[in-house]
UniProtKB/TrEMBL annotation:
InterPro entries: Aminotrans_3, Aminotrans_3_PPA_site, PyrdxlP-dep_Trfase, PyrdxlP-dep_Trfase_major, PyrdxlP-dep_Trfase_small. Keywords: Aminotransferase, Pyridoxal phosphate, Pyruvate, Transferase. It comes from the Bacteria. GO terms for molecular function: adenosylmethionine-8-amino-7-oxononanoate transaminase activity; pyridoxal phosphate binding. It holds the Pfam family Aminotran_3. Belongs to the class-III pyridoxal-phosphate-dependent aminotransferase family. Its cofactor is pyridoxal 5'-phosphate. The lineage of its organism: Bacteria, Pseudomonadati, Pseudomonadota, Alphaproteobacteria, Rhodospirillales. GO terms for biological process: biotin biosynthetic process. This is Beta-alanine--pyruvate transaminase.
Length: 448
């Protein structure tokens, strides 16, 4: 079997597909039915057969500015030639400071400091560690409990799967962290099916945090982590008033509130962050994906001035204030990509573009009401979810068929369980939206 090959000459055969142990993929199914992309530009991928595939998911919710952006590739290529690597511990390089300042400027008032990571998962674990260390620095070392939410997805690190609420992420690996509890998720089909934007019902679900405080005592709780909009478990949109209540209860009990904005951050809802959309300011924000438009891996944790100052003020002179970091934290090439991406967002007004197209998007998603198999439709910003009735005893099988059929018809969608999630790049045109919905309607009619 070939040990190396030119990507352009690569022809998938059972032999040369074998070595790659693919993530979150049915390896056996994929290797029998390979789907390979070789190029991408704008709203489209090109697959290995030369066919155009409409990207209705911005890759994995990350290619917000669309594919093949020359500004990014030029910045990356320049940076790698000038300074390919610089150690982030006890050393620095200009782009790291510039990017941190620019991200902090985009973040809600009071969130002024940025710690860089390489992924959403690392951002989550970093945020949880900062929360624990902050409480300790404040002299509240008994606050070690972390609270997540059912149907939360916070990546795949041991911290993330512990606070996450996705059964398959937990049952295989256990939950490495003890001292975890979960709020109930916010989805209730009876009360909120087919709602547009935020459902009116469900703010009271945040009161469960008071129950957990009564059970464990506030003095044992460090932080609560939630996604403002739960993305990967099927687009669960927070009820009106819910996040406000969580904020109120956290503040009342001295508990830090972490928003996991790996999906919502950088314009997905038409605002800089989900925090801005909902008008609720957390103490920490995790981000990744849209920070570099998916072009180079990078994530970050944005923390409040109060948290940062606490570390600075409680450490001995010249001591390392936070005993944490990655070899590739603030990697120069990732920083260059991030700076180029933030320029694109600003110069092209892409977050406003999301706002402008949201009503059209909402109508398009909800036009699927009554289509075969559909039992709920929901949307917020440039996110849409189409929930299908599951086949008896075979959860996820119908949506997987929809995924494969959509790909055959030239469109990339994302499925989780029996929910189809759509999250196109912000450069999406109305004609692409029409095309996406029309392909989807055909797909749903054609599958059992
Ligand atoms: N947190 C949220 C809310 C996510 O949606 C994701 C990925 O989808 C992650 C964390 C994990 O990010 P990554 O896959 O970059 O580790």
């Amino acid at each position: 079997s070939p040990k190396s090959f030119e990507a352009t000459q690569f022809k998938p055969t059972p032999n040369n597909l074998e070595a790659f142990f693919m993530p979150f993929t049915s390896n056996r199914h994929f290797k029998a039915n390979p789907r390979l992309f070789v190029k991408a530009e704008g709203m489209h991928f090109t697959n290995i057969d030369g066919k155009q595939v409409l990207d209705a998911t911005a890759g994995l919710w990350c290619v917000n500015a669309g594919h093949g952006r020359r500004e990014i590739s030029e910045a990356v290529s320049h940076q790698i030639q000038e300074l390919d690597y610089s150690p982030p511990f006890q050393m620095g390089h200009p782009a790291a400071f510039e990017l941190a300042s620019r991200v902090a400027a985009l973040a809600p008032t009071g969130l002024d400091h940025v710690f860089f990571t390489n992924s959403g998962s690392e951002s989550v674990d970093t945020a949880l560690k900062i929360a624990l260390a902050y409480q300790r620095a404040k002299g509240q070392g008994t606050r070690t409990r972390l609270i997540g939410r059912e149907r939360g997805y916070h990546g795949v690190g041991f911290g993330g799967i512990s606070v996450g609420g996705m059964v398959n992420n937990r049952k295989w690996f256990g939950t490495a962290l003890g001292g975890i509890d979960h709020l109930p998720h916010t989805y209730n089909a009876k009360e909120m099916a087919y709602s547009k934007g935020q459902p009116a019902w469900g703010a009271h679900l945040a009161d469960d945090l008071e129950r957990l405080v009564a059970l464990h005592d506030a003095s044992s709780i460090a932080a609560v982590i939630v996604e403002p909009v739960a993305g990967s478990t099927g687009v669960l949109i927070p009820p009106k008033g819910y996040l406000e209540k969580l904020r109120e209860i956290c503040t009342k009990h001295g508990i830090l509130l972490i928003f996991d904005e790996v999906i919502c951050g950088f314009g997905r809802l038409g605002t800089n962050f989900g925090a801005d959309y909902f008008g609720v300011t957390p103490d920490l924000i995790t981000c990744a994906k849209g920070l570099t438009n998916g072009a180079i891996p990078m994530g970050g944790v944005i923390v409040s001035k109060q948290i940062y100052d606490t570390f600075m003020e409680t450490s001995a002179e010249n001591a390392i204030e936070l005993f944490h970091g990655y070899t590739y934290s603030a990697h120069p090439v990732a920083c260059a990509a991030g700076l180029a991406v933030l320029d694109i967002y600003k110069n092209e007004g892409l977050f406003d573009r999301v706002k402008e197209i949201t009503p059209y998007w909402e109508n398009a998603i909800h036009s699927l009401k009554g289509t075969r198999h559909v039992i709920d439709l929901r949307n917020i910003g440039l996110i849409g979810a189409i929930e299908l009735e599951s086949r008896p005893g075979k959860p996820g099988a119908r949506a997987m068929d929809a995924f494969l059929k959509a790909y055959e018809k030239g469109m990339l969608i994302r499925v989780t369980g029996d929910i189809i999630a759509m999250s196109p790049p912000f450069i999406v045109e109305k004609s692409h939206v029409d095309q996406a919905v029309s392909i989807l309607a055909d797909v749903l009619k054609s599958i059992d």
